[in-house]
Amino acid sequence: MAVSYLDFKRFSEQTIPLENYMVEEICLRILVSASYYAIYHRALELSSLVRSIPLSDVAGPSHKKLSDFYIKPFDIKSELDISTETHSKMRRVGYVLKTLHARRVLADYKVDDEVSSVDMQYVVSQSDQYIKIVDEIIEAL
Length: 141
Description:
Blueprint: H1 5-15, H2 25-50, H3 62-71, H4 84-109, H5 117-140
C-alpha cells in the first residue's frame, strides 16, 4: 500500500504525547523524521503539478533539488502564471525544507548528538505550518 504526506502527518500527530514531551529520545527522533517527510512529500506533490520536467528526471540529490526548486523555481509549466506572492511563499517553503532537512539528518544519522523535545516541537510545528502554505499554493493554481 502506498503512503502520502498525510500518513506521515497523522503518524506525528498521533504519536506526540498529549500530557508532556518527556519521552525517550528515540521517539523524538522518529517524530522529527516523520514530520520532515510530511512536508517533503507534500512539497514534492506541488512540484509535480507545476514543473514541466519531474524533479526525478533532474540530476542531483532529491532533498536538495526540492528545496532548491522552491527557493528559485525552475522549469515551471509555461501555461502557469505564478504570482509574486506565490513565488514568495515558495521561497519560504524552500528555506524551511532546508532547515527541517538538517534537523531530520541530525535525528536520523547523528546518534551521538542530542535531539530534544524542543527540536521535535519545532519541526512538527514548522511542518504543519508549511504544509498549510503548500496547500494554499495548490489552491491558488
